[in-house]
Amino acid sequence: MASKSPQHINLNEDLDWIKLREETGSAFPETTKEKMMRKIKENPLVPIGCLATASALGFGLYNFRTGNRRMSQMMMRARIIAQGFTVAALVVGVVMTYNKKE
């Protein structure tokens, strides 16, 4: 049985990516929170639609649990409308962003 010799590690070559990162600066110029706030300011209708969808879903599930079938059904229909609004807002936002870049 032949024993394997440990590989020689050359730290100067193996850690060149650290020097590259220091020279070029940070790979992520904005934090996740900053990016989220920028996206919300660019298209505020999407978070509004998401909140409306979640609210209609929550209220509809609550009414379903309490046995109020009519209100539960109305809230599920409102959820579908809110989802459609959110998708439409996303599409409009993408089209507007695409037109800005050109």
Automatic annotation (TrEMBL):
Domain HIG1: from-to ranges: 17-102
Record localization: Mitochondrion membrane
Cell membrane keyword on record: no
GO terms, biological process: mitochondrial respirasome assembly
UniProt KW Transmembrane keyword: yes
PANTHER family: HIG1 DOMAIN FAMILY MEMBER 2A (PTHR12297:SF18), HYPOXIA-INDUCBILE GENE 1 HIG1 -RELATED (PTHR12297)
Identification of the protein by name: HIG1 domain-containing protein
Species in which this protein is naturally found: Glossina palpalis gambiensis
